[in-house]
Amino acid sequence: MMVIPVGFGRATSLLIKRFSWFQADCLVRRKHSSYDVAIVGGGIVGLASARELIQRHPKLNYILLEKEKELAFHQSGHNSGVIHSGIYYTPGSLKAKLCVRGAELSYAYCEKKGIPYKKCGKLIVAVEQDEIPRLKALHERGLQNNVQDLSLIDAKEIQEREPYCRGLMALDSPNTGIVDWREVALSYAEDFCEMGGTIKTRFEATDFQITKESHKDSTDGLKYPITIRSSKETAIQCSYVVTCGGLYSDRLSQKSGCSSEPRIVPFRGDYLVLKPEKHYLVKGNIYPVPDPKFPFLGVHFTPRMNGSVWLGPNAVLAFKREGYNVFDFDLRDFTDAVSYSGVQKLVLKNLVFGVNEMYRGIVIAAQVKQLQRYIPALTVNDVSRGPSGVRAQALDKDGNLVDDFVFDGGSGAIGSRVLHVRNAPSPAATSSLAIGEIIADEAGKRFKL
Fold first, then answer.
1. Under DSSP, is residue 275 helix (H, G, I), strand (E, B) or coil?
2. Exposed, middle or buried: residue 256 (CB in 10 Å: 0-12, 13-18, 19+)?
């Protein structure tokens, strides 16, 4: 277990980040283990929420708990790096509102902190006639969501923006960008620490209990009525809890006596990487027109801040919640998934789609064939296997993907003091600062901070 101290200077912190500062041995500034608010989960959503809470209520004591030795280790460090603009989402939905505001806040934050980003834009490309009505509907949806500078462009304009891309019509979103979201998340952590927050890594929250007696170093009685225990038999006491558990958000809810629904089901996405000598084929993000018959978006082209270009991903059921390799397996995760009625119904509804996704994950040529619909010059020799990510997909018992954010609490001695972020779907990274605002709003109301 490691505690990160307060008060790093800007120049020092940048060096620390560069050398994986969350793995370093840091001075323990807080000797006791009682806090007003504990945030469980050191991904980008948990860090953004912790940062917002401490900004609003600086007189309270905060601790953020992360089970890994590093922050932003899972979804926050295994994503496409896109700053989404908010085109796809149902007008008026929380997802749409948070994405549009989140993108605005993210660009402003990166400017303020000197974090590199690039507004490389995005084309959503229709390659078949029957995709054009859906593309036009997507344009209208984006306008309703107040996405900036959207326009429909024709085949000639597509080639002006992406010389190697072929399509009949495209939706041009110049406000879409790219950034290293893990760097952003670590900057949130730095802000939190500088404002007096404490971070403990290697602390896996395994149990939430009512505090039976005061900690030996505490004279505060039952001011901190919740005890959070870790897998290493350490514990902290707190008054209130906010959980941002990502792939384990449903299990954290159950451990605190709250609902197990919606259930989290892990889906792995495997990317290909464009070889460096072929980077000229792609300038910005190139995306397909979503097909409502299928549960996931489909393959796309994504430039990265380090100069690489990712192609894909597919989407297959993962047999381990944090399993980034094809053969990763965890018996409990597998059993939880395949025994859940929601998964069974999803598989039956999308059996052909699922088989095709698995095939594309194994056979590179099949993945490339999909990508060639947009860039015909691409060949199998131009790509190699790349990284994988696992998304925490919330699923209801009827097999429907839960597409919007879900914030939940409970009742009773523990449940009334806990706020769970039950579902933070893509684009959670883009929306992180906006999510932090809404979490702080909700925590303030529920906990009377």
1. coil
2. buried
Strand, coil or helix: what is 265?
A: strand
Omega of the bond prior to 262 within 30 degrees of 0, cis?
yes
Dihedral of CA atoms 124, 128, 131, 136 in degrees, nearest 10, equals 60
Identify which has the larger pLDDT, 222 or 347: 347
Give the pLDDT score at 220: 55
Q: Which helix (H) or strand (E) holds 309?
A: strand 309-312
Q: For 294-336, what is each residue's pLDDT tens digit? A: 778 889 999 999 999 999 998 899 999 999 988 899 999 999 9
Residue by residue, DSSP assigns 361-419 as HH-HHHHHHHHTTT-TT--GGGEEEEEEEEEEEEE-TTS-B--S-EEE---HHHHTTEE
Give the pLDDT band (50/70/90) at residue 205: very high
Q: Exposed (0-12), middle (13-18) or buried (19+): which is 9, by Cβ within 10 Å?
A: exposed
Within 10 angstroms of residue 338's Cβ, the number of other Cβ atoms is 13
Peptide bond into 427 cis (omega under 30): yes
| Residue tagged 């927050």 (tokens) | 197
pLDDT tens profile 51-100? 999 999 999 999 999 999 999 998 888 899 999 999 999 998 889 999 99
Contacts of 125 (CB under 8 A, 6+ apart): 158, 165, 167, 169, 170, 286, 287, 288, 289, 374
Question: CB under 8 Å to 331, separation ≥6 — which residues?
Answer: none
> Which one-letter amino acid corresponds to residue 232?
K
Contact 106, 98 (CB under 8 A): no
Quote the pLDDT of residue 119.
Answer: 96
**If pLDDT is split at 50, 70 and 90, which confidence band does 361 have?**
confident
What residues have CB less than 8 Å from 306, skipping those under 6 apart?
180
Distance CA 245, CA 75 (A): 11
Which pLDDT does position 285 carry in this prediction?
Answer: 98
Predicted pLDDT at 214: 56
CA–CA dist 290, 298 (Å, integer): 7
> 300-303 and 205-210 as β-strands: parallel, antiparallel, unpaired?
unpaired
**pTM score, whole prediction:** 0.90
The DSSP secondary-structure symbol of 147 reads -
pLDDT of 406 above 90: no
DSSP code, position 293? T
Contacts of 147 (CB under 8 A, 6+ apart): 85, 86, 87, 100, 173, 175
